[in-house]
Amino acid sequence: MPLIDVRNVTKIFGARPERALARLKAGAGKEAILAESGNTVGLYDVSLSIERGEIFVVMGLSGSGKSTLIRHLNRLIDPTEGEIVIDGNDILKLSIRELEAFRRQKTGMVFQRFGLFPHRTVLQNVAYGLEVRGEPRAKRHARAAEWVATVGLSGYEDQYPAQLSGGMQQRVGLARALCTDPEILLMDEAFSALDPLIRGQMQDQLIDLQSRLRKTIVFITHDLDEALRLGDRIAILKDGSLSQIGTPAEILLSPADDYVRAFVKDVNRARVLTVETVMKPPPLRLTDETLEQALAEMQRQGAEIGYVVNARGYRGVVTRDSVNAAIASRAGPTVDEIAVGAPSIAPGASLAEALPATLSSTYPLAVISRDGSLEGTLSAAQVGEILTPSKDLEAA
Amino acid sequence: MFIDIGKPIADTTNAFIEWLIVNHGDVFESIANALLTVLILIERVLRGAPPWSVILVAGLIAYAASRKPVLSVGVMVLAWLLGSLGLWEQAMQTIAIMLVSVGIAVIIGIPLGVVTARSDTARMLLNPVLDLMQTIPSFVYLIPAAMLFGLGKVPAILATVIYATPPLIRLTDLGIRQVDHAVVEASRAFGATRWQMLRGVQIPLALPSIMQGINQTMMMALAMVVIASMIGARGIGETVLLGLQRNDPGKGLVGGIGIVILAIIFDRISQAFGRRLQAYRAVEG
Ligand SMILES: Nc1ncnc2c1ncn2[C@@H]1O[C@H](COP(=O)(O)OP(=O)(O)O)[C@@H](O)[C@H]1O
Ligand SMILES: [Mg+2]
């Protein structure tokens, strides 16, 4: 069961949304409704599921409804229609007291403009969530101090937000959100206001934290590079409706419409795509067969090449010719003896990292996972095909 | 062409006041007594203490509020001048009335400001009342107040509160509405209750504006002292009033200078405090 389940959520801003809702369902456009009744369509029929422990990125242009969507998840905004189920509970049914408790226990939020309390010190800002929970002062300050240290701001505990740089302020924002140990972290363009260099550092820090904390993170951004870097899955919003939900590779390799295509066309695919998303399925794998067994297997599967992986790890490549030659010269008893060492690549490597090896290798590169199993192969031709996506561009 | 509504309004009001006096006179009396008790206590402390100690405390308060030695010394010199003008006793009486009035204004004004900041309806309803309180001549409510509470200090306090509370309500409202929306949202996102939000975020961030309201309330309260003395409250206003009545412009001027000195003292202390509150409370860094 997903942790967060958003079902057919529609949000219409402005007075008396019912009429606008009816018009929307009858097919009227966003602009038409705004002109007719002054109602703004924030979201229209959005459904998505977010799994425990993933970083779910929501991307879209400014005004596409990203902030509106994320504010539904802790009910800073109530939907006009639809359901929001979190951890099995319909949060729209919560009373105001229950909702406050839900926010205190389950969620933390980081804001684009930081939203720090200007009259509180760094430590008091970070401790705010615990203060609201009613934790005793000593306990909440001790916890807050740990988080201040975790985000690298030790020594700044007693400074005020106005005394810090933007990047430092957002570290405070991140520490404040994490200090209550929430299951769900909501981040609305948390890094968008920062310089590119600082933004990169913050992304690294978030990835590093996430590898230890395994939170469920909903991350909003309008920056595709950031989305691809952080997201386990990405949802793309356009004018309040979802265009596509998928893994970074799915978004890049099969964009659902022209809007998504326009987003992805300038992406450096070599840096973003990993070997495992484009490799061919595993070819013939040999272990400790005798030469004759290997030859028979190659003939049966119609394979020209075999990849030898046995208890000692990846041993290299044999071809039908090399096996035939070895049989003729009565060399070694098994394929292991005659395998020619060849480079391999990890499934998580980027295409940019894999490209030199694929170019220098005579045979398609073996993709070997950390535990030593053969996952697939990657050839220079395949890489070339992915990196020059002629058909996508022509369609765009 | 005209219908006569003036007379019915006047008659109804008179009947109502009469009814209040007859049926609830004791309520007003106990209110008056409670106020008087507090007022007399403050007055006794101020007048009983040796003047040098009052001057010293004024200097300390000025320093605590501003952290500026110059201001502190200036306040002490001004306070000494009050005594040298021969107005010490009267000044202490005026300060006591002012403190009680401002205290009541704060107790009423800040909660009302919070309510109007929260609700546009409440603001819409209260606004004309505040306009009325500030524009209607004081004597209009002084007469019934004197009938209900008797002549003297209590109706003076009442008149001062009516006249001086509106700016505090308005500036509290403004201060809370001006708090950065993003900061309030952050507090809500962390599950703060309305009360926690108000106490921990909105009021602290509105404090500079609220302090400005208190400053204005103090100034307006001081402006009421002459009128208050006409219904029998003692104090510096009495000196001015005597000058008028006895055709003694010199005495009137001395009283006037005394009021100005008091105004400067309270204005500078409360302004300095407000400025110090401003530190770190800027919306964005
Ligand atoms: N409180 C509001 N009242 C009226 N319209 C709003 C409100 N909040 C957002 N909108 C409108 O809803 C749309 C989506 O806004 P938003 O979710 O902030 O977009 P994004 O975060 O993707 O830039 C915009 O057209 C915006 O003007
Ligand atoms: Mg936004």
TrEMBL record, chain A:
Protein localization: Cell inner membrane
Keywords: Amino-acid transport, ATP-binding, Cell inner membrane, Cell membrane, Membrane, Nucleotide-binding, Transport
E.C. no: 7.6.2.9
Pfam families for this protein: ABC_tran (PF00005), CBS (PF00571)
EC top class, as a word: translocase
GO cellular component, one term: plasma membrane
Record carries keyword Nucleotide-binding: yes
GO MF annotation terms: ABC-type quaternary ammonium compound transporting activity; ATP binding; ATP hydrolysis activity
Reactions catalysed according to its record: a quaternary ammonium(out) + ATP + H2O = a quaternary ammonium(in) + ADP + phosphate + H(+)
Residue intervals of the ABC transporter domain: 4-264
Keyword Plastid set for record: no
GO biological process: amino acid transport; glycine betaine transport; response to osmotic stress
SMART domains: AAA
Major place of residence: membrane
CDD domains registered for this protein in UniProt: ABC_Pro_Gly_Betaine (cd03294)
Topology versus the membrane: Peripheral membrane protein
Similarity section: Belongs to the ABC transporter superfamily.
Assembly and oligomerization: The complex is probably composed of two ATP-binding proteins, two transmembrane proteins and a solute-binding protein.
Protein name: Quaternary amine transport ATP-binding protein
Species of provenance: Bauldia litoralis
UniProtKB/TrEMBL annotation, chain B:
Record keywords, A-Z: Cell membrane, Membrane, Transmembrane, Transmembrane helix, Transport
Membrane topology label: Multi-pass membrane protein
GO cellular component, one term: ATP-binding cassette (ABC) transporter complex
PROSITE patterns assigned to the protein according to its UniProt record, in alphabetical order: ABC_TM1
InterPro entries: MetI-like (IPR000515), MetI-like_sf (IPR035906)
Chief site of localization: membrane
Gene Ontology MF annotations: amine transmembrane transporter activity; carnitine transmembrane transporter activity
Protein family according to the UniProt entry: Belongs to the binding-protein-dependent transport system permease family.
Protein name, UniProt field: Glycine betaine/proline transport system permease protein
Species annotation: Bauldia litoralis
